[in-house]
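SAMPLE LOG
Freezer: B-3
Tube label: C17
Construct: single chain, 307 aa
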Amino acid sequence: MIQTPWGRLPVADAHVHFFSHRFFSSLAEQKGIAAAQIGPLLNWQLPPSDPAELADVWVPELDQHGVERVALIASVPGDAESVIAAVRRHPTRFYGYMMVNPVAPHALEQAKTALASGHIHAFCFFPAMHRYSIQDDRVAALLQLLAARPAALAFVHCGVLSVGVRKALGLPSPFDMKFSNPIDLHAVALQFPQLRFVLPHFGAGYFREALMLCDLCPNVYLDTSSSNSWMRYEEAHLDLRTVFRRALVVAGARRLLFGTDSSYFPRGWHAGIFDAQSKALYEIGVNEESARLILHDNLVGLLPESA
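STRUCTURE (predicted):
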């Protein structure tokens, strides 16, 4: 439980990056340096090589802040085993999300294997990062795997995509924003009405389009994560209160999922994001019932307990 403007409420975070040892090793390989050098370069703690031990680090961090559950995102393709290990270790605290690259070799086979573990609850698609259309047949094959499950999510990153760690290390980010419009997801969401789709960061700069998509597709949800600095791109001044107000009008409280975009240590869980979002919700008059939905119940209601 966390103390909020409405009193003490349970909190479940729908967006936390699990920066595993393999994640750091992947960056080091691209940078041409040893993995041990990455931590000092970023002023971050290098995680243990065993992802279950990293999960053990996250649990007391969440306990300290009063966070009940979080969705852990494997932040590079092929790192599903890291979040599987974390969820296996603490099945009542974590949900497992894996990044998929549908155009990579063996993507479908790897996804099937990960789902068979019983500890993966969502596939994360980054079309601009991996330069493919969300309407690609190879995406549909992965979505069919999710749709066959009683409870699973498809996380689709749209809008602006900036990976701060790559900038900090001087690594290129050859993303292609022509694949980043939420409108491209419209036909796909209609094709899989039984599957729930989640757009992080309110569409990350495509807020109008994200709202249009939510209005047309009742199986589309918005996650509220990060500082939402995309608001600076809007012609009319937007603040977090206005964003929440408009999202609530179109999507309703039952289709908003609170998230922080927390990732690395020593910063740990990003309590400042929670404070800002809960304050904005309270200031626009959201009642306790709706706050509980957004901050906890919606995510927990969408996903099952791990096997």
